[in-house]
Amino acid sequence: MSTIFGQIVVGPPGSGKTTYCSAVQDYFNKCLKANSSRHVYIVNLDAANINMPYDCSIDLVDLITVDDVCDNLNLGPNGSLMFCIEYIENNLDWLIKRLENLINQHSTSQLPPPYIIFDCPGQIELYTHHGSIHRIIEQLVKKFPIRLCCVNLIDSYYCSDSSNFISALLTSLSMMLHLALPHVNILSKIDLIERYGSLEQNIDFYTEVLDLSYLLTNQKLNKNQFRPKLAKKYRKFNKALCEVIQDYSLVSYLTLNVQDRLSIEKVINTIDKANGFIFGHLKNDDLSQRTNLFSNAYGVEQFEYAKTAKIRENYTSVDDDEDM
Q1: Are 243 and 257 in contact (CB under 8 A)?
Q2: In what order do the strands lie in the sheet with 114-119?
Q3: What is the pLDDT of residues 104-133, one digit of tens each?
């Protein structure tokens, strides 16, 4: 069996995971006419996710649903979702069998190589305090020659408030450490980043996670800021959290607008480099294409300020000359 590539899509509730999965599938469906290099299959691992906007190849809802658990075990929504994840972990043969059937059926067709996206539930504790998702991934990687990239979506709304942004950074860092996969963090809904007020810093500050001390010391408020700065009584605590984040120096973000084709392509290209798809799907004798891909992967990069120029121009109102 040849190597299979894919994504594990995670992130807090409402961050746009399902919309992202649908947008990626739609993007490659449109590219099939242009000899796309992959055919996307989506696996829904969220037992509360029904009426998905995408074409779902394997659906956990066929095995168990949050509503059934709530009704039969008298659990709340979060407890029911945890039960569902533990249930699929204990009955992983159900998922493995369906993945095997999907891959075998695909291998007999004339379609491009399969590319599998796992749409995961949004409860953060499943990734930061609970081990089922991690153990499910481990078993899948052992069973199949699959190379996955974890795609963590964070609503760009969190950039509007310093305490929320620190919380998003800690969540992203914790996921990176616990899931132990190639990891791409994304600020989703970037076209709505200032819907609750203008940003305190330039967009580069949030994407590159620059000196976080500015979140603690800068007392200047934009006139449209909808929330106050960090409370003084929590300043030492927040300073310690910022130091932890910067000591690891692992977290940075891409930006995403699912309605912008170029934005989707930029995210996909980054993921392809992270999980190795940009190299691994080629045949050994495809030397010319491999050379071109290596050149693109390690070619000259833009300065970070230039990468976010379109975001600043279209979606933010912070003056470029304003001091951070």
Answers
A1: no
A2: 56-59, 39-44, 114-119, 4-10, 146-155, 183-188, 254-255
A3: 887 777 777 789 999 999 888 888 888 899
